[in-house]
Amino acid sequence: MTLLSTRGLTKRFDGLHAVEDVDFDLPEGQVRALIGPNGAGKTTFVGMLCGRITPSAGTVAFAGRDISHLPAHRRIGLGMAYTFQITSVFARLSVAENVALAARRKVRGALGVRRMVARSLARVGLEGQSGQIAGTLSYGHQRLLEIAMGLAQRPRLLILDEPTQGLSEAEITGFKALLRDLSASATILLIEHNMSVVMETADRVTVLDFGRILAEGSPAEIHADRAVQAAYLGTA
Amino acid sequence: MSGGGARSLALHGGVLALLLALHFVLPAYHHGNLARIMVLASYAIGYNILFGYTGLLSLGHALFFAAGMYGMGLAMRHAGLGPGPALAAGLAAGLAVSAAMGLLALRTAGVAFMIVTLMFAQAGYLALLYFGAWTRGDEGFVIQQAERILWGIDLSDPGNRYLAALALFALCLLATLWLVERPFGKVLVAIRENEERARMLGYNVFAYKLGAVILSGTVSAAAGAAYGLLFGYVGATFASVQYSIFPLLWVLLGGAGTVLGPLIGTLFMFYLIDLSSGVTSAYMLVAGVVLVLVTLFAPQGLAGLLRARLWRWLP
Ligand SMILES: Nc1ncnc2c1ncn2[C@@H]1O[C@H](COP(=O)(O)OP(=O)(O)OP(=O)(O)O)[C@@H](O)[C@H]1O
Ligand SMILES: [Mg+2]
């Protein structure tokens, strides 16, 4: 079953075509990587999926329903979760409260929330920092906190915008394992520059270039694709 | 957080107990002042819900204070209601006015929000003057002693007045204490800290902000209605821009986003003006200088300073 699809999705910023006429289908349960050079329109594209950005044209459907006109909070309510490319946590609140704010949308009752917070923090390895003020975490740990906030929402579709940016090698290895584990319970749309993460975790890869879909296929196919190499990998 | 629960209850309960004890020992002059301060601090508590906790700076709260005061006063004067129903009318007026203002003003943000709220309050003030036949305009009107007897209690009596002011203040204080521990209060703080993030966690930010405006406006109106009833006067000064600025200053001084801040700020500023006006006619200058000093050296306000230096758990 297709969980998410777009038709003719387009965004122009005063003449600049950030995303151009994108038809995109994401089956339920898949881990999909979205790759492409800087400025290709990846963040703009997913921003239109979750309602942060209003499209210039086109439609978005989620779980068989046209959500093009729903505001962001309603889309999140339907089971999307979004983590920001530019870390955006509640810097002056505690780590636990950050995750609790995410969890309370889904879990009722203080005890249930506390459990969900503990579980989400443990999954990203931040259980020791739950009392710390989020803004005092290292950059990498703030990225992990973002991911924990996504997990706590128990989403059907988790959109991750460059989650591994700023993580250490060890943290990236942990993240890959987490992603595999997560893919059992959620569909994942992953924007990622780190090729080893893409190759090892994605079921399929979509390549965006100048706002258009340049190619789509298995990680191996994409890796071998000449046009992709020319546009993105820089190894042609 | 959870360790703070008991301590915070002890601290705030202690403050309320102290205010009750002061009722029996304060000389008449200060006793009267403190009654007034507690009502004004309730107003500041209302303001703090929107400014301190939700992060929305309104310059038009006099509209809510006056809505409560006039809702109560006009209901007595023209509809012949007793003090109980008149107070309820004041609250209803505050609720309606804040809902209307919220729905319109929340379409804007930041400086535009400040200006829109200021304009609304000015319109309200001018309307009070314009409909002078009903409101007695600038002059205002007195609420007679006979009309100030609520449930057999004569609120014009200083002792009763003090206790009534304390009851109102205690109610507002405990309500905020409760609110900030509720999920609703936590979402308000989240909106203050990072609105976009709150939205992308699925919170209907507009609805929460509207809730905050209405809550804040209604508490402010309760303070306005109580002020009119307890001190026996309803006048347009209370709708002027000055009364929109006051709660901002009290809350800034006391500590925005702290439960005790409004009381500390109101108390501090009241006595600052009281004492300096005894010494010099340029007392507003003294008040201004102190304000500048506090903003420079304790930008989080006095209670904020306490939280940063001593009591991390202070709500
Ligand atoms: N709010 C905006 N106003 C104007 N132009 C914008 C805006 N947001 C993005 N753009 C432009 O749209 C294009 C696509 O940007 P986008 O952030 O979607 O790219 P990206 O693929 O996410 O890039 P990166 O890999 O660097 O994150 C870029 O040229 C960018 O400069
Ligand atoms: Mg991007």
Features:
heterodimer; A: 236 residues; alpha/beta; Rossmann fold; 2 domains; 6-stranded mixed sheet; 4-stranded antiparallel sheet; 9 helices; globular; B: 315 residues; mainly alpha; two-stranded antiparallel sheet; two-stranded antiparallel ribbon; 14 helices; 3% strand; binds adenosine-5'-triphosphate; binds magnesium ion
The CATH topology name of the largest domain in chain A reads: Rossmann fold
Q: What is the name of the CATH class of the largest domain in chain A?
A: Alpha Beta
Report strand % of chain A: 25-35%
| CA-based gyration radius of chain A | 17 Å
Roughly what percent helix of chain B? Answer: over 70%
Any overview of this molecule?
The complex is a heterodimer of chains A (236) and B (315). By secondary structure, chain A is of the alpha/beta class. In chain A, strands 6-7-8-3-9-10 form a 6-stranded mixed sheet, sandwiched between helices. In chain A, strands 2-1-4-5 form a 4-stranded antiparallel sheet, with helices on one face. In chain A, a hairpin with a 2-residue loop joins strand 4 and strand 5. The model of chain A has no long low-confidence stretch (mean pLDDT 90). With 315 residues, chain B is an all-alpha fold. Chain B has one domain. Chain B has 14 helices and 4 strands. A two-stranded antiparallel sheet of chain B has the order 1-4. A two-stranded antiparallel sheet of chain B has the order 2-3. In chain B, a hairpin with a 2-residue loop joins strand 2 and strand 3. In chain B, helix 2 packs antiparallel against helix 10. The N and C termini of chain B lie close together (9 Å). The interface between A and B is medium-sized, with 24 and 18 residues. Bound molecules: adenosine-5'-triphosphate and magnesium ion (MG). The site of adenosine-5'-triphosphate (ATP) has 12 residues of chain A, from strand 2 and helix 1.
